[in-house]
């Protein structure tokens, strides 16, 4: 009996906390905030815009050349996600340290480094996946 009551109480708690977290309205609101973040990055960051269009080009080429889509999509998503994190970190650093500070530099440089590493990896993935079929298409083989 006590066990059943305990389980019911736990279920109530779970329903109350998970219920709101899983509500479609709440999820839609959160997605709206996330999309606002993406739009802000697109408007304010030239690098993000370049990466978006480079990714779109790579995905189009992969589809047209019938190259594996998943690794190209994953590499593009990684670069874009890290650029968004870099944008967020830049904003937080500017908020916390408007003056020049060595730690602010470390934070911004490391975040930019993360994007650079991901972009280099994406370039390798792009060359490996799209290079051979593109070469075959160009050379008519
Ligand atoms: N508060 C700061 N203290 C110390 N160094 C800073 C600070 N803000 C920026 N820097 C240095 O200047 C570099 C450029 O910073 P900035 O905020 O202009 O970013 P960015 O690389 O121009 O990025 P974006 O063009 O995407 O905004 C940083 O990587 C860092 O080395």
Automatic annotation (TrEMBL):
A Pfam family this chain is assigned to: DAGK_prokar
Q: Where is this gene product found?
A: Cell membrane
Q: Which organism is it from?
A: Deinococcus radiopugnans ATCC 19172
Family membership:
Belongs to the bacterial diacylglycerol kinase family.
Q: Spell out where the chain crosses the membrane.
A: 48-65, 110-131
Q: How does it sit in the membrane?
A: Multi-pass membrane protein
Give the top-rank taxon of the lineage listed in the UniProt record for this protein: Bacteria
Primary location group: membrane
EC no. given is 2.7.1.107
Which Gene Ontology MF annotations are present? ATP-dependent diacylglycerol kinase activity
Instruction: Read off the PROSITE patterns from this record.
Output: DAGK_PROKAR (PS01069)
Q: What is this protein called?
A: Diacylglycerol kinase (ATP)
Which keywords appear in this protein's UniProt record, sorted alphabetically?
Answer: ATP-binding, Cell membrane, Kinase, Lipid biosynthesis, Lipid metabolism, Membrane, Nucleotide-binding, Phospholipid biosynthesis, Phospholipid metabolism, Transferase, Transmembrane, Transmembrane helix
């Amino acid at each position: 009996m006590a066990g059943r009551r305990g389980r019911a109480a736990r279920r109530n708690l779970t329903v109350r906390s998970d219920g709101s977290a899983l509500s479609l309205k709440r999820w839609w609101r959160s997605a709206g905030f996330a999309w606002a973040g993406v739009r802000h990055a697109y408007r304010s960051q030239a690098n993000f815009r370049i990466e978006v269009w480079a990714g779109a080009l790579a995905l189009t080429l992969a589809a047209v050349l019938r190259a594996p889509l998943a690794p190209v999509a994953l590499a593009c998503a990684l670069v874009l996600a890290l650029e968004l994190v870099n944008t967020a970190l830049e904003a937080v650093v500017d908020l916390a340290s408007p003056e020049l500070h060595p730690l602010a530099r470390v934070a911004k440089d490391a975040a930019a480094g993360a994007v650079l590493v991901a972009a280099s990896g994406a370039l390798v993935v792009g060359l490996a996946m799209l290079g051979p079929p593109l070469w075959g298409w160009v050379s008519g083989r």
